[in-house]
Amino acid sequence: xxxxxxxxxxxxxxxxxxxxxxxxxxxxxxxxxxxxxxxxxxxxxxxxxxxxxxxxxxxxxxxxxxxxxxxxxxxxxxxxxxxxxxxxxxxxxxxxxxxxxxxxxxxxxxxxxxxxxxxxxxxxxxxxxxxxxxxxxxxxxxxxxxxxxxxxxxxxxxxxxxxxxxxxxxxxxxxxxxxxxxxxxxxxxxxxxxxxxxxxxxxxxxxxxxxxxxxxxxxxxxxxxxxxxxxxxxxxxxxxxxxxxxxxxxxxxxxxxxxxxxxxxxxxxxxxxxxxxxxxxxxxxxxxxxxxxxxxxxxxxxxxxxxxxxxxxxxxxxxxxxxxxxxxxxxxxxxxxxxxxxxxxxxxxxxxxxxxxxxxxxxxxxxxxxxx
Length: 372
Ligand code: GMT
Fold this sequence. Notes:
Layout: E1 2-6, H1 13-27, E2 31-36, E3 50-54, H2 68-83, E4 87-91, H3 93-106, E5 112-117, H4 120-123, H5 129-141, E6 144-147, H6 150-160, E7 166-168, H7 186-189, E8 197-202, H8 211-224, E9 227-232, H9 238-247, E10 254-258, H10 263-268, E11 272-275, H11 284-291, E12 296-299, H12 304-307, E13 314-317, H13 322-333, H14 336-353, H15 356-371
Parallel strand pairs: 1-2, 1-4, 2-3, 4-5, 5-6, 6-7, 8-9, 8-11, 9-10, 11-12, 12-13
Helix pairs in contact: 2-3, 3-5, 8-13
The protein binds ligand GMT.
């Protein structure tokens, strides 16, 4: 098949999934055309079956705002016709599904539009009445819609008031990168003593990620056992988080690492991951950690309970319950035999439920059904 893919190319779970899906589809012989504003950050290697079409935004003086969405739709229509695409798979209903529908109507060649919902368009924009109708339109005019969790599917149906079929296809990880391995000396290079437990939080530092809860949980853990917190990522709450860490005098035990590419290496030296968000349609970072053998503690919200099974592959806590999060963390971190049991269980569940081969098969089946 010839498949076009559009996503937000900057760092973020949806961009990661779109890029990894494209790579795996290309490895299976499909021709992949990325149509994005810049090269998705995970597309770091040349592949003969992967092509990249850049969306150029022109700044005409008469327009107050550059019309990015129209430029994207135009580029999509051009690529559909030039490359004779069978499928245009877009990640996010707004604006990508809308642009794809417009492009499908403009193009001469017949193409099927697949939209994958990742969360923020529904859980944030869906609340805004100004966007609700457009999201509904984007969903109902797509040829097929998928969602990354059951929770997001239900939330979408309820919020947008649609009974349009939405299939759940879980996220996955690229096992070639995310698997258990040793990184000798990395702990030492970060000046983390061997006996110290390493807790990691990875996010885009938006308010919904509740960084103060992560810090408070770590503070409680740190009062009981020698430990370090790795904070990976950057975003609007970065400065406030730094300030909080300073006030709690945790500066030397909380490492702000900013945006990082090789998250797998950091996971290789981690014992536990924390994701205490108030909104999360899936929580891809939890899955990436699990694929490296690192269990997590997450909030009992959105799609997180579909990734972590409470008491079996990690723990779930109510939003804001940092005491409970720290108690569970200590239960894991002070018992190395239990840590090993959890490690085995998380690796097993990744293999059973989130293996890339299984998930890619599900997307291919969906594409083929549309093309019948
Ligand atoms: O979490 C974010 O702010 C980024 C956003 C994105 O576009 O990557 O993440 C969403 O999609 C990810 C991939 O499907 C999910 O793992 C995240 O849970 C989801 N974020 C939210 O729902 C807040």
